[in-house]
Amino acid sequence: MKRQQIVAGNWKMNNDLAEGKALAEAVAAQAPVAGVTLVLGTPYIHLSAVADILDGAAGIHLSAQNCHQEESGAYTGEISASMLKSVGAEYVILGHSERREYFGEDEALLAAKVDKALEHGLIPIFCCGEKLDIREAGTHVELVQKQLAGSVFHLSAEDFGKIVIAYEPVWAIGTGRTASPEQAQEMHAAIRKMIADKYGAEVAEATSILYGGSCKPSNAEELFSQPDVDGGLIGGASLKAEDFLAIAGSF
Ligand code: PEP
Question: Where do the domains of the chain lie, and which CATH numbers do they carry?
């Protein structure tokens, strides 16, 4: 079975509404990209407007960058999974290293967010990956195993089959420093093996594992040519439609 190839943009806290709409329009104008699922991860306030722009177009989907783990209630300033669903989001990025680092999101909290997202029919793009000290200590595979065990390996095989994994070495995010294709492949293959050990080869073979970390038009092709790299989660380069589309055209 051919795995789904996905290029997902993570706009982070960038673009006012007019800029975000213009970016979404520029990407949507070129969609679909043959064989590639495009995902736009916008700030919360852009979701509804970008949903109108995408308007169910083939091959391009809407994502949030976070959601709260509770159903609803007195959580001032927070956004629930059902709210995201109601404005047209289909995906939600969870476990991004910036959420772990700046907002203290730990494995148990992320497990609850993953559960809540799935309960409402959102597809989690679950991020994992090590910081530089862990990479230098050579314990990156163990760390990623722990992140997956703590937040997604409690899922049933059926639910696990719905999620997307993004391997994002933290030392490569926004730094201009990219994992080499060999480093990416090594970790993606290790992650696929972890999934196979937990859920069996069929589920592992069907899971899309994206690479994230300074992926850009100049390096996307060699990263995506690796057998276990099924696309990318793109930060900085997703803010320019032409770069994002060039990455999507790199398979
Ligand atoms: C990210 O934050 O998910 C990311 C991959 O960022 P960048 O592409 O800017 O390194």
Answer: 5-248 (3.20.20.70)
